[in-house]
Amino acid sequence: MSAAGEVPPLDRLRDLGRWPAWRGAPAEVHCSTPAPGIAVWTRGDVQQAGDSHAGGIGLAMEPGGAGEPAAVALRRWIAERRWSNEGLRGRYGYVLWDARARRVMACVDPFRTYPIYHAAAGDCLLIASDLRLILATGLVPARVSLPALYHYLNFSYVPAPHCAIEGIAKLPAGHCLEGRPGATEVRKHWDAVYPADLRGSDDERASGLRQRMIDAVSGYRPLSDAAWGTFLSGGTDSSSIASILSRTAGSHKVSSFSIGFAEEGYDELAYSRLAAQRFGLDGHERSVGEADALAAIPRLVDAFDEPFGNSSAIPTYYCADLAAQNGVELLVAGDGGDEIYGGNERYRKDRIFEWFHRSPALVRGAGAMLAGALKGVDTRLANRVKNFVYRGSLPNPDRFYSDDSFASEQFEELLSASFRDHVGRDDSLDVQRAIYRMAQADCNLHRLMYLDLKMTIADNDVVKVVRASRLAGTQVAFPYLDRELVEYTGRLPGNDKVRGLEKRYLFKRATEDILPVEIRKKKKQGFGLPVSVWLRRPGPFRDMVNEVVLSPKAAGRGYFNREHVEHLMKRHERGAWDHSAEIYLLLMLELWHRQYVDGQHG
């Protein structure tokens, strides 16, 4: 939108090479000027409605594939100039305009599954679903934001509203933007709350949760004949979804897709096979190895418009690719289960840290003495003891943050003096402190779960699954992130999520006839990639990482002390500590620079 009523020529947006690429992407871009001062560029399946003065565009994926509530939201805006999330569930993102009032609105769903970027450039307000589209206008220079990169170095992603490029912002999950000439306002339209007000016996609450889960998952089962299936890791979330879907599929045999690894301790195909057999699924699987990871990384750099350091994007991509090869257009994912049912291993660990934190001074003093005695010892066991004592001495959310604090913990050793001039050691911690304080929650566990929904889910897991799947040519639905289900689980007491040291207490009771006991009681592995193994042994993956991370080009950016980066890599190789996550995010940061900053998308 242009405050002056005229939009500058933006012909570079017609160039397909400046748009994100994915399997099956349309081969043309559509451009229109639906109202004075408004110019719209779209590619793909984007809804558009309106008249010469008011209208909107949007992306929406609702439970079951029904499209009426999304269309109602557009019609309401055109008729009343009012937007609300009334009746909206699932995934959505909208941009709406009222030319007469010189007003633009943009909104994203509760977990930002369709991202929206925005920037002011002179008289223009730029709004886009992808960072590279704003860069393609030529109105915003591709200058890296060092504060945003600092957050990336701590979290492995850039959290909203921050953006890797100066002058551009991301709309946070569950928020709306309203733009008028000379001013923009961002406000919240939905939030997770934790009143924890449900009472009754454990059996009654388990029965209630079971029914809510079945209703949510069944509601996300596609109603059309389009080919669909499920991610199936063999864990409790994906397995419970597969089980519920298989019960409601009638004569349709649900397809499942699973990824395994040759490395011991990473492969969970035995559990996904068990689930596929018990639920009568049409199971598909493949193994991902070192060569596959090397082949996927450049594709993923192109799929993510900001630096993204979560290595599990690689198996996610190959899982979605396997589905696409079998004709599947939509995958149902289990993301969000850990964060609403209490399955994150960090919640259980935090209970142990909290016990130490609240223990008598004599106990804490003994721990501090032991850690002090081990100060000069650099072995895995000694480092684990020192790490426990350090983290156990912190209050939350500082303690929770210490699990994601690479650049903070190694601030002076890692970062160059010029980088440190632009950031403060606690800048990323302050991001989490602010979110932790915002939580409308009754206990520490719920505040941590709220923090995870806002960051781990909205800024990390959803971004990973949506972007990797789109690259493969598939769409994704998230029934465990259904707004009504999330609101319901917020009414369950924290003790239902983690009781003592038992995670998912009520979920396990609720799924007794949904999941086999072997899966309900299995140890959580996650969907990790064996990067740690590949970096310890000689091979093509380690060679590639060394070549990129320690390259003159990477050193020339002036961000890091090269000697410390070399120290981390050598320390990892000899097993003193697992630095694979940190090394991988350094790799992806440098590759992102080469793709997006060194001229290609600027």
UniProtKB/TrEMBL annotation:
EC number: 6.3.5.4
Pathway: Amino-acid biosynthesis; L-asparagine biosynthesis; L-asparagine from L-aspartate (L-Gln route): step 1/1
Limits of the Asparagine synthetase domain: 209-594
Protein name: asparagine synthase (glutamine-hydrolyzing)
Catalytic activity field: L-aspartate + L-glutamine + ATP + H2O = L-asparagine + L-glutamate + AMP + diphosphate + H(+)
Residue runs in coiled coils: none
One protein family per Pfam: Asn_synthase
InterPro entries xref list: Asn_synth_AEB (IPR006426), Asn_synthase (IPR001962), ASN_synthetase/amidase (IPR051786), Ntn_hydrolases_N (IPR029055), Rossmann-like_a/b/a_fold (IPR014729)
CDD domains membership: Asn_synthase_B_C
Organism: Caldimonas mangrovi
Family named by the database record: Belongs to the asparagine synthetase family.
Matching PANTHER family: ASPARAGINE SYNTHETASE, ASPARAGINE SYNTHETASE (GLUTAMINE-HYDROLYZING)
Leading EC class: ligase
